[in-house]
Design brief:
mainly beta, about 80 residues, Rossmann fold, single chain, about 35% strand, 1 helix, 3 strands, 3-stranded antiparallel β-sheet
Length: about 80
């Protein structure tokens, strides 16, 4: 995913970053290693068909549910 550079040639800091995001319920895998980087100050839309895991991803990023143990690095606002 291309990102724009700021005036000094560096990428803006990420408002949201997830690497290897995974979630399963029992033996049903609902998110399988999602990588996401949303630069600060941008508008982002999350689109996909029903059952694609959009709501699950947003719930994890907003701390309403937890990702599976061993999921990669998840950061929102630097936390």
């Amino acid at each position: 995913m291309p990102t724009s550079k700021n005036g000094n040639g560096q990428e803006p800091p990420a408002a949201v970053s997830a690497v290897g995001l995974r979630k399963s319920y029992g033996d049903k895998l609902v998110l399988d290693g999602i990588d996401l980087r949303i630069p600060a100050g941008t508008v982002f839309a999350l689109l996909g068909p029903n059952g694609a895991g959009k709501t699950t991803a947003v719930k994890i990023l907003s701390t309403l549910i937890t990702a599976d143990p061993g999921s990669g690095d998840i950061r929102v606002g630097g936390h």
